[in-house]
Amino acid sequence: MAVYTTVTEQDIETLLSNNLLGTLKQFSPMSAGISNTHYKLTTSTGEFVLTIFEHADIESLQTKLMLEEFLVSNGYPASAALPSKNDYRLQTIVNKPCKLSILLPGQSVQIPNLEQLNEVGQMLAELHLTSVHFQFGHELLKNDDWISRSVERLLEVLPTADALMLSLIHI
Fold first, then answer.
1. pLDDT digit string (tens) for 83-100?
2. By CB neighbour count within 10 A (0-12 exposed, 13-18 middle, 19+ buried), where does 65 fall?
3. Are 104 and 154 within 8 A, CB to CB?
4. CA 140 to chain CA centroid, nearest Å
5. Strand duo 37-43 + 24-29: pairing
């Protein structure tokens, strides 16, 4: 289970008091996820996801939230942050940045079948076609220069066959 930050009912109620999402009925940790903590929240107005960002700087998070909002405004099913009463999309809980979003339908699949893989491919293509129009507000942290520097460092430590393969695909 990917829960790195534990929150209490009081923590969530305090967060919800700054939002227009109703009163908390129940909450539970979500097992899917890699680097962030996720809780499913059920309130008097619906089901939501609380995402607690574990390892990200504020500028990158702001860009991520703007991209999600852009995607949703262009018809892509993304988990865009819901605004608080003060129109903040990036909020805090237990001194960590977080967001609240609508619980999207679906579930985590560990071993996808061919139909699911096809759906993922279609959604990924749609994501790329939609996001190509997004204007980033800052230079990407993992741009071409970052990739080149990373490849150079990897070439120094990889076994010869792997280094050769990497050097062939990195142009």
1. 999 999 999 999 999 999
2. middle
3. no
4. 16
5. antiparallel
The residue written with tokens 């990889």 in the block is: 158
User: Could you give the CA distance from residue 80 to residue 43 in angstroms, rounded to a whole number?
Assistant: 18
pLDDT tens digits for range 119-146: 999 999 999 999 988 887 655 556 677 7
- Are 166 and 155 in contact by the 8 Å Cβ rule? The answer is yes
Contact 61, 36 (CB under 8 A): no
Residue 100 · residue 82 · CB < 8 Å? yes
Reading the block at residue 168, the tokens are 């062939």
Encoded tokens for 16: 């919800």
Q: Which residue has the tokens 């619906």?
A: 46
What dihedral angle (degrees, nearest 10) is formed by the CA atoms of 155, 157, 158, 164?
30
User: Residue 122 carries which side chain, given as an amino acid letter?
Assistant: Q
Q: Which residues, other chains included, contact 70 with Cβ-Cβ below 8 Å and sequence gap of 6+?
A: 131, 133, 134
C-alpha 79/C-alpha 103 separation (Å) is: 8
The predicted structure's pLDDT at residue 138 = 55
Q: What is the pTM of this model?
A: 0.77
Partners of residue 24 on adjacent β-strands: 43
